[in-house]
Structure formats: C-alpha cells, structure tokens
Write a structure and sequence with these properties.
The protein is an alpha+beta fold. The protein has 2 domains: about 190 residues, no CATH class; about 70 residues, Alpha-Beta Plaits (2-Layer Sandwich). About 65% of the residues lie in helices and about 10% in strands.
C-alpha cells in the first residue's frame, strides 16, 4: 500500500470512529441517562456504576473500564487495533462528557426504541473501521480469533449476567425497557454492518448457459462461474451458472436471464459478506 493510500485509510478509519462515537454518545446522553436505561455491554456497565455510585460520569467510567481491555488488545491483537480502539474510547468518553442533550421522549417504550436505534447505528459505524469503540468488542474479537468463540455468544453471555444483576436492583419496567433497547441496538448494528457488505449469490440452471454467461460478462460487466450439475431424476448433466451481484443489479440480471431462456431456474441467496477478488478485502485488526 502506498503512503497516500495509507494516509487515506488512516483518515477514513479515524472519521468512522469519530462519527460512530458521536452518534452513540448522542443516543446515550439524549435518551438513556434521562430514563436510567442500561444498554448491554461495557457502556451499560459504566451506566450502572454511575447510577449506583453517582460518582464521575458514564463516559469516565467507560474509559476506566476499558483500560485493562485496551492492554489486552495491545498484547493479543495488534498495535494498530490498539491505537484505533484507544482513539474510539477517548472519542466516546469525550463526547459523553461534553454533550448535554435531552430529546424529551417521555414514553418509556418510544425512548427505548429510539435510544437503541441511535446507539446501535453508532456502534455499527465504529465496527466498520479497523478498530472499535472499545468495550466488549476487544474481548469478543480476541476470543473469536484465539479460540473461535462466537462474538454473538460472548455478548449474549455477558449481557445475561449484566441484566440478571440489573433485574435484582431495578423495577421490572426499567429492566424490560433496557432489554428492548439492547435488542434494538443489536439489530441496528447488524444493519449498519450489512449495509455495504450484503451480496446476492445467484444460481442459474439453463440449457443456454453460454449465452447467459456472455450477457453477464458483456452487458452487466460481472464475472460468473460454471459449475457441474446433474439432475437426480433425469440423470442429465448440465452446467450451472453461479454469479455474485447486489440488489441494484439483481433485477437486471433476472431480466437478462429470462429474456434468453424463459424456462431457466433462477435461485437467489443472501450473503452477508463476500471477500476477495473485486468485492472486498479481509478485515485485519
């Protein structure tokens, strides 16, 4: 990678971490703290300590709780990941300190949905970078890379312990609203991560596979692969076309295929991420 590309990559990652931290902090400061909600993860742990001790602020607690995790990131991951994540933690703590917002959403359910959506978008933007916003992301990535322990499983276990404790300390209404908030946050995060990654894998069975491949290559400017296929009932050997496309091109591809062969079999599968070739590079921490 050239120096110019390296600088551009660094600036892009810092921009993502800054924007993601700002969005998350807006959700936390404008909604969560006013309803005493607990969001899952380490920021939720910081909120819980803040509510119980009334010392410092959620942003300060979040920074303090991240110190041992950042050290673990330095040891087990990479120096680049450490510095990006340190920047993300500092930005989230900074924005949490300086922002004084109140969206004045009085309905508890509406507040949980809105807070979860905003915080989830912020966390998702952070994870689009080569670092993270700190918190459980660091431990989850270490466990996944070193022991192949699922990221989702780790979050679920941690949040189960957190909300079990919260349930013993708070009224059920707050606990249920906090669980809804965390659930909405997870969905928003996944949508942000999938926004630019989702692809469509298309399988096409047709006797006119050569014409279809030519149309994919010449008209849609996409690649395709021919796979060997055999009908289980007829025993007929055929060529199956496999290609990877996106939502924008999918309808055009469908029209091309059925213009060539109205009897073609057209199968579409969703793929969260496609790495390699011209689609994207593997994320290295």
């Amino acid at each position: 990678m050239s120096t110019k590309q390296s600088i551009r990559s660094i600036l892009w990652n810092l921009l993502l971490l800054t924007l993601g931290s700002l969005v998350f902090a807006i959700g936390a400061e404008a909604i969560l703290v006013h309803h005493k909600f607990i969001i899952g993860g380490l920021f939720g742990t910081g909120l819980l300590i803040f509510y119980k001790s009334n010392l410092f602020s959620p942003g300060i607690w979040y920074f303090l709780l991240n110190i041992p995790l950042l050290i673990a990131g330095w040891i087990f991951l990479s120096k680049r990941f450490f510095f990006y994540s340190l920047y993300g933690v500092c930005m989230l703590s900074f924005f949490s300190e300086i922002l004084t917002l109140n969206f004045a959403i009085n309905n508890q359910l509406y507040a949980a949905v809105a807070g979860g959506a905003i915080c989830g978008v912020g966390a998702g933007i952070n994870l689009r970078s080569r670092g993270s916003g700190g918190g459980l992301d660091i431990i989850a990535i270490i466990l996944h890379q070193k022991f192949n322990f699922g990221v989702g499983k780790f979050y679920m276990l941690f949040n189960a312990v957190l909300f079990t404790f919260v349930f013993s300390q708070y009224q059920p209404d707050i606990v249920i609203a906090s669980i809804i908030l965390t659930f909405i946050s997870s969905i928003s995060l996944e949508h942000v991560l999938a926004l630019f990654n989702q692809r469509k894998i298309v399988y096409i069975l047709s006797d006119n596979h050569i014409e279809i491949v030519d149309a994919i290559s010449q008209d849609l400017h996409q690649g395709a692969t021919l796979l060997e296929a055999t009908g289980t009932h007829t025993g007929k050997h055929m060529k199956m076309v496999m290609t990877i496309t996106n939502n924008l091109q999918l309808k055009r591809l469908e029209e091309k295929v059925f213009d060539i062969d109205p009897q073609a079999l057209f199968v579409v599968e969703n793929s969260f991420n496609v790495i390699g070739s011209n689609f994207g590079k593997r994320k290295i921490y």
